[in-house]
Amino acid sequence: MPWTRNEIAARAAAELEDGFYVNLGIGIPTLVANNISDATNVTLQSENGMLGIGPFPLEGEEDADLINAGKQTISELPSSAYFGSAESFAMIRGGHIDLTILGALEVSERGDIANWMIPGKMIKGMGGAMDLVAGVKRVIVTMDHCNKGGEPKFVQQCSLPLTGKAVVDMLITDLGVFERQLSTGRFRLSEIAPNVTREEIAAQTSASYDE
Amino acid sequence: MPWTRNEIAARAAAELEDGFYVNLGIGIPTLVANNISDATNVTLQSENGMLGIGPFPLEGEEDADLINAGKQTISELPSSAYFGSAESFAMIRGGHIDLTILGALEVSERGDIANWMIPGKMIKGMGGAMDLVAGVKRVIVTMDHCNKGGEPKFVQQCSLPLTGKAVVDMLITDLGVFERQLSTGRFRLSEIAPNVTREEIAAQTSASYDE
Amino acid sequence: MSRKYANATEALAGLLHDDMTLCVGGFGLCGIPERLINAVRDAGVRNLTVVSNNAGIDGEGLGQLLRTGQIRKMISSYVGENKEFARQYLAGELEVEFCPQGTLAERCRAGGAGIPAFFTRTGVGTQVAEGKETREFAGQEYIMERSIRGDLALIKGWKADDAGNMIFRKTARNFNQVMATAAPLCVAEVEGIVPVGSIEPDAVHLPGIYVKRLICGAPYEKKIEFRTVRTKEAA
Amino acid sequence: MSRKYANATEALAGLLHDDMTLCVGGFGLCGIPERLINAVRDAGVRNLTVVSNNAGIDGEGLGQLLRTGQIRKMISSYVGENKEFARQYLAGELEVEFCPQGTLAERCRAGGAGIPAFFTRTGVGTQVAEGKETREFAGQEYIMERSIRGDLALIKGWKADDAGNMIFRKTARNFNQVMATAAPLCVAEVEGIVPVGSIEPDAVHLPGIYVKRLICGAPYEKKIEFRTVRTKEAA
């Protein structure tokens, strides 16, 4: 049985270590926040200028001046700090963030990621995604293994415009976990969702990877 | 009669305009602060991270955490603001400071300035002087016309290591005022100290300048 | 010489012209200089280049200047919330330079800090690198990015004094701080103008040197793009 | 996982080794991490490269590490207050890289911000430009300067909480803020460690992400290099 979106998020959350500073993207990555164990002290960064993102505010306590990078209302914590965009990305680009978890349209077997543009269709812009994949120490992608048309998203080569080249360190899909090896630059299938077979994964993947 | 150090400073102070942000160097430039008319609202910048330098503190009110770039104790004003060194020099380098007044060992006829090093003798370092002459909108040098040995300091070409090349806009010495022309890049003698003659100035100057 | 002006129109008097480049603060609808944007709309200047992380939403913020067709070119990182933007862009009426958010912030900082160009890893191997010089440092590939400097910066702060010293509130700081530095002139709107001396010198987020003109734009009805809440039980 | 350590020696345990590069905050004797510098002296590590705007004075601040001969190379903008420095330099015992103060600050910022190199006008046509690439932008000549990144940053703040959030006091901020970013690890000393929540999130000068270890170094007897005062009548 493939993992649910929340199970993917929970698997990603297991990668968080005590003391980590983490930036979470939109979609499945957002769900990671709810899956962080109380014993793990993790600080969430928002690229619009905040460290220490709190939970969504209580109804009636929303503050238009307090939003995350997805423009959702959030709350602050006693340990929060605010800063401007230039400082926020100095922090990201300078390698001070330990981990980012992002969604993707495609991931290639060399660790390329495409998640910002579908030519002629989606022209929203890359936001902070290119900065995050280039600057953060470790990049984890969470995504469905296939798109809605049933086609593989973990591919030999991305067909969509790239967000970053050879930047993905780990890929978590509903079917399993792939870790990219420093030595070879190739992904290795390191974990399989319950009752999913290696053959099923291979059949839904056009990327080449190690077992 | 040549101008005194304080008269040089007073002449330099006449270049300040209402609303100006100004950085003053050490020596004669420091005296400029005392010569600013009350009608002129000028904000003094200190490159160690302050806008709005106040007067020296009252005795007993010195604060080791509140010094100027010359490491002298100062005071703050109600309008003061503090910031770090990177921001301070972003401000300087970015052309946000209207005017800097500096001392010099030598000024050349092309507007070069040498004020940081005498090889084999003075090895203190350039501090913020190179950043100031390169970044501030207008650079005024105040200095004695000749050194202690009676040799000209306003020269054809600097013999000492440069602080900046073609950066001096105005030179005020005890003998007169020289303004560098945008069109030609050459200095023009625009003002003479009382009872000093053009011939006396020429005799004590090795730089070529327009009358 | 007071920085205070009665309203946005007066604060912008003499500063606006066709074909100019505006650096505008804000992130989404958070911390946008809405009074000043409306005054730019009313002034009717055209053919503008606007540097701003986002383009507002339809009819809000910079969305207003899109609707009137006053913007010729946007330099932005994300415009996903604006349908009119998409329409004009696909119709070829609007020129767009997509710039990664961090690179945009850094290009504006560089513009304000006298740095004409710098190297970054962001965008290496992507469309963003096309036509740009690349170079290796310590075995890593970097792109050379150029600074951005506008003719006029428009920002929104929380409080300011008449010396121009300003503080921002929470995540409404975002691009406002850096945009203020990226033009020779910055006009700001704030929620309150306070007496000189009431902002602690150590607490200033943006020193007054950057802020040449100032209006109080209160009262504000701040818009929220995505209202997300939790219920008391979940808390 | 607390950031608090009992004293400077414990805070530096396991972090010091010969031949390392230290990025040290402070301007003159203002805002220098004196407890940490003393602990480096006591640890006896040698052959250090120290990035610091100044080199202390004789027997104070970094002057201590000069006296013990632990420093091999200094990267500084101004060292005029230190006679031992001058002696070692002229005797060829000490390597010195003079760097303009603003370029030093920017090189450290770049090191902390993932920017390997940038262009600046500072130093064009001077000794500082020797051996460096120059390039024209818009008809102006610029020098390419490389970032600085150390192995360890030592800074002094005023107050910090156990999340590492820090505020500085007056001009003691100086290089401390930027040095904290310019190494993978920063150890800080402050005058008081306060409970998490007592520093207003909008007032933080240095977010806790940069500060990995923390000591309270109080009480401090802060030194003044040049005591300048006015008399009451003059006021």
UniProtKB/TrEMBL annotation, chains A, B:
Which Gene3D superfamilies does the entry link to? Glutaconate Coenzyme A-transferase (3.40.1080.10)
* Superkingdom per UniProt: Bacteria
GO MF term list? CoA-transferase activity
Cite the SUPFAM superfamilies for this sequence. NagB/RpiA/CoA transferase-like
User: Would I find Amino-acid biosynthesis among this entry's keywords?
Assistant: no
Among its keywords, does the record have Transferase? yes
Question: Matching SMART domains, A to Z?
Answer: CoA_trans
Keyword annotations for this protein, in alphabetical order, are: Transferase
Cite the Pfam families for this sequence: CoA_trans
By its UniProt entry, which PANTHER family does this protein fall under? KETOACID-COENZYME A TRANSFERASE (PTHR13707), SUCCINYL-COA:3-KETOACID COENZYME A TRANSFERASE SUBUNIT B-RELATED (PTHR13707:SF57)
Q: Which family does it belong to?
A: Belongs to the 3-oxoacid CoA-transferase subunit B family.
Q: What is this protein called?
A: CoA transferase subunit B
Q: Which organism is it from?
A: Aurantiacibacter zhengii
Lineage at the top is:
Bacteria, Pseudomonadati, Pseudomonadota, Alphaproteobacteria, Sphingomonadales
UniProtKB/TrEMBL annotation, chains C, D:
Where on the tree of life does the source sit, at the highest rank? Answer: Bacteria
Q: Which UniProt keywords apply?
A: Transferase
Q: Does the keyword Transferase apply?
A: yes
Question: A Gene Ontology MF term for this entry?
Answer: CoA-transferase activity
Identify the Pfam families for this entry: CoA_trans (PF01144)
Q: Tell me yes or no: is Phosphoprotein among this UniProt entry's keywords.
A: no
**Would you tell me the protein name for this molecule?**
CoA transferase subunit A
